[in-house]
Design brief:
CATH topology of the largest domain: Rossmann fold
Order of helices and strands: EHEHEHEEEEHEHEHHEHHHH
Strand order of the largest sheet: 3-2-1-4
Number of helices: 11
Radius of gyration: 20 Å
Structural class: alpha/beta
CATH architecture of the largest domain: 3-Layer(aba) Sandwich
Number of strands: 10
Largest sheet: 4 strands, parallel
Distance between the termini: 26 Å
Length: about 350
């Protein structure tokens, strides 16, 4: 899969810390799950064909305890948006997708398709165990948590029905998976506190906030969900959305949301994928390499583009990204001037290739 066989574990937590029941949730256009009723009959649209399922991909979606009706609607809507994106657009098989919610979404159609249970710590551990048993080193595992959480200056938690799980609990569960690459996307308030305990050399960690002091409810999850499949997030025009592109898309729309509301931004997303436990708000200081080459879909280059010339440039781009990662792995074996010269050459070639792709696709 684009230069590496990777298992992707995304932990996306929208959390309102502390006395969450008293907070007013940040609303975005996608937060309201209720359909707008009009007198005009809706025109029927031909549904887009579903993506071909990939048996090597797994997912766990957890929508935790809400505390009040407003949050219950918001979290359930986000959980179902994730479920729809994964199963209809990104090639996840329903039977390999686990959905845990505060109130189990159970009907005959759902229960026949996938795995549904209540969002408790026991059911969370059972889901991890099931994925661990079925997944391999080349599997892709996507895990998203949606709900409230707390941070008491000692440890961060995700609020479930019953006993909660801490960041350290999730780190232990992640470490038990047989995957080579793990991605954690924590969309919680105060989620910046998850970076250090979850950081690992083979793991991409994304948080909605940059510290535990950003404690208000976040909007990051709504825009992250949208960015997973939105063509506007595909800035290099490759026909696919890398997690670096999704991160940049979500952070921009989050910042724009606060500006449009004339409100002081209370969330600033971070990304860490070099395992040093320090996140950044953009690609810098060694962070971003894994995110740039990580995709949730299973598209081939031919599926991403029907243009033979674009496919050639995409192949070159893919190889250059692999060469850059190999060079970084050999950094300690090279003289600093040799390393920097070769890295500069590869980055210049990558920039030229990306420009060719964007120009061709205009």
């Amino acid at each position: 899969m684009n230069g590496f066989a990777s298992a992707i574990l995304i932990l996306c937590v929208t959390v309102s810390m502390g006395a969450f029941a008293r907070q007013t949730p940040a609303q975005s256009p996608s937060a309201n799950p209720q359909a707008v009723q009009t007198d005009k009959p809706a025109q029927e649209k031909t549904p887009a064909p579903r993506a071909t399922t990939d048996p090597k991909k797994f997912a766990l979606i957890i929508s935790g305890v809400s505390g009040e009706e407003t949050y219950a609607k918001k979290f359930t809507a986000q959980a179902m948006q994730f479920y729809d994106a994964l199963t209809n657009k990104l090639g996840f098989d329903e039977k390999r997708v686990y959905l845990l919610t505060e109130n189990v979404i159970s009907n005959s159609e759902n229960m026949a398709k996938g795995n549904f249970a209540r969002a408790t710590s026991d059911e969370t551990r059972k889901a991890f165990t099931a994925i661990k048993a079925a997944a391999g080193v080349d599997s892709l595992v996507f895990i998203t948590l949606i709900g409230h959480g707390t941070f008491d200056n000692q440890e961060a938690k995700f609020n479930l029905v019953g006993p909660d799980l801490t960041a350290k609990d999730y780190a232990a569960l992640l470490n038990g998976l047989p995957t080579r690459r793990v991605v954690v996307v924590n969309c919680a308030s105060s989620s910046g506190e998850f970076v250090k305990p979850l950081s690992s050399p083979d793991r991409l960690v994304i948080t909605a906030t940059r510290s535990g002091n950003e404690q208000n409810a976040t909007t990051f999850a709504d825009f992250f969900i949208k960015g997973l499949t939105e063509s506007a997030a595909d800035t290099d025009k490759s026909g696919r959305n890398s997690l670096m592109e999704v991160f940049n898309y979500a952070t921009k729309l989050t910042a724009d949301w606060y500006k449009q509301k004339s409100r002081l931004a209370t969330e600033h997303a971070l990304l860490d994928d070099n395992g040093d436990g320090t996140g950044h708000e953009k690609e810098e200081s060694g962070d971003g390499a894994i995110a740039k080459t990580t995709y949730l879909d299973s598209k081939t280059l031919a599926e991403a583009s029907a243009d033979a010339e674009v496919i050639k440039w995409l192949e070159d781009k893919q190889q250059l990204e692999i060469d850059i990662e190999k060079l970084k792995a050999r950094k300690s074996d090279l003289k600093i001037e040799e390393y920097e010269a070769e890295l500069e050459r590869l980055l210049v070639e990558l920039a030229k290739t990306n420009r060719h792709i964007r120009t061709r696709k205009k």
